[in-house]
Amino acid sequence: QEEEQEEESPSKRPKALFDDGKDNIATVLAMSVSSNPSVPENSELGTVLNSLKQSFQSELKKVQAEQEAIKKVAAALSGAVEFKDLNDGTMRMKISYHYKTRQPKEECVQNLPPVLLSAVLTHIANDTDTSVKENLDPRGMAMTSPRIFWSVVRHGNVGPEKSFIEALNQLTNNSVDWESLLKRESRRPEKYKDYVSH
After folding, report:
1. Residue 197 CB neighbours (<10 A)
2. pLDDT by 10-residue block (mean), the chain, 198 residues
3. How far is CA 117 from CA 11, 30, 66, 80, in A?
4. Which of 25, 122, 132, 198 is the most exposed place for a label (fewest CB within 10 A)?
5. For residue 71, what are the contacts with CB-CB under 8 A and spacing of at least 6?
6. Are 111 and 92 in contact (CB under 8 A)?
7. Looking at residue 41, what DSSP letter applies?
């Protein structure tokens, strides 16, 4: 008679990461944002947590960048922006802006002269590569290319009396139908998917 093997108790059996309700995704996500999870990094759970933390931080950075871009656009349209040339030979300018805050925020970017800015905007608008035009709306522009965004605000006189579309039309001598272009680009999915500010 074959010797019956003693069944392993549930407490001794190795358990897969998502075997039951105790190890659910919500728990892992909650642990992933902990500053010091008590899990070895080389364990299965530790590997998953590290991956989730990296994804969480990446998504958080995108959300924060988009929120700040919204504030920049609002500040520009309300006229709560000041520009100052640095005069250090770098063609940079310092921008002070605020929206619903007491203390203004500052940013330094390259100041694109109107002639160069017009050429850049016209080239982007007419580029056959649609990926180049994905962030032409003000919020996307503020996220992906602050130097173009602030140069448009400054040289296009964006403010309470002038919209971004009016400024873009002025800067490109009405050679581009910006209203139609921006409406079309705003309908594209997965905006800011590959967000890299420059």
Report:
1. 11
2. 49 46 51 54 72 76 87 95 94 94 91 96 88 83 94 97 96 93 65 47
3. 68, 46, 23, 22
4. 198
5. 97, 99, 100, 105
6. yes
7. T
Confidence at residue 41, expressed as pLDDT on a 0 to 100 scale: 63
State the burial class of residue 95 (Cβ atoms within 10 Å of its Cβ: 0-12, 13-18, 19+): buried
| 28, 21 contact by CB (below 8 A) | no
Burial class of residue 3, CB neighbours in 10 A (0-12, 13-18, 19+) = exposed
For 53, the token pair is 């933390």
What's the token pair of residue 85? Answer: 């040339």
Of 76, 85, 100, 46, the C-alpha closest to 159 is 76
Q: Quick one: pLDDT at residue 133?
A: 78
Q: Which tokens go with 111? A: 């100041």
pLDDT for 132: 73
